[in-house]
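Why does this matter for the project? Reviewers at the last site visit asked to see concrete outputs rather than summary tables. In response, this paragraph embeds two records directly. Each consists of the residue sequence and, immediately after it, the corresponding structure tokens. Nothing has been edited or filtered.
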Amino acid sequence: LGSSSDLQVGEDVIAIGHALGLEGGPTVSKGVVSALGRSIAVDPVTTIVDLLQTDAAINPGNSGGALVNTRAQIVGINTAIIPGSQGIGFAINIDDVKVVVAQLLATGTVERGFLGINIFSMNPGLANQLGVPVLDGVAVAAVRPGTGAHAAGLREGDVIVQLGNEPIRNTGELSKFLINHLPGETVDLVYFKRDRRVETEITLGTRPSR
């Protein structure tokens, strides 16, 4: 395994995978690192952050394959393309993958902090509807009673903008924060309740089994 934090734009990479499920074994395609730290919105609820962008050809069937550098080090896991585009593919950076892999090897599951909310990434229309003075953040669609979010005062329509010392601009950044902060940890929370900024603390819980 390599380190994605050492990557530079323009560096040569090779994507490995089973493109289109063609017979005869895996395929490889060569390209460069086109950009670092990309974010893509999969849907209104899901954003993937800190992706590597590459122009190495990635097609359906490549997902889960390795993106490697010229020193045979895995620097990313091929993940997504933008339909209709050419030369725009994305890989999860290997530094984020290592966190998940370590948990899977240790316990067989990925443990992460749990807030107890349903969420949407913010957009200008939603900001206007909720009456909040921010365009970035995570809007709360629902809150489970008895969770850390409920105890911290979060309610439907509130917008989370910071956890700990980290800005939370979309659902991807929230998900990444919760992977790195385990149940039982208490962190600072900043959110907007309409035009009022609220600063408090929240204790992360454990995701229920169902």
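We now turn to the second protein, recorded in exactly the same manner.
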Amino acid sequence: RYLSNIQGVLSSIVLEKRGHRVLSVAVNNKTDQLAVLVEDVICTPSSFIDYSTPCEVEVYGSDGRFRNRFGREQLKDAIDITATNDRGFMVLQRNSCIYAFNADGSHYHQFRVSGNTSPRGAAVFCFPPTDHVFVASLNAEHCLQVSIHSRGGIFERNIYIQHKEEKGIWCVSGMCVTEARIAVAINDARGHKLLVV
């Protein structure tokens, strides 16, 4: 786990707590901090028992030093993390709920999103210019959709990326949004795909 600054100098990051598995990372450009979404592997149950897995966010500076930890009380079965314009972070969970945290790690808001974020994964991205929250997930027909929500969690609309006849066994592994495009990474039996609209 390494960070590279603009000059290309690498900083090594060692997770603060042992026994954690990295689920996702997000960089907050306003604070130059890296947030690492981790789950507690020691507490991860057998796949035969339906328990929630404890998760939390560890924050590191650009120098690789540990800064903060938060979310353990709120986060269970987390999937993805994204940075927000107010120097905070949002975490997407498998129960189709997003938890918002401010810059110091205090939980201040949560909301449900359109789509099914379980069992085939999902991804979240907060678009800086407008503060809209984009979530790539499955819809009721098991097709890929991107739902768009306001920063406060109000649903605005869905964009359907994959047609019903193209559905198959696949999972969402990440996404990115620019001024002109939405890109969603998926994995299926034939390998990896990047779907761009």
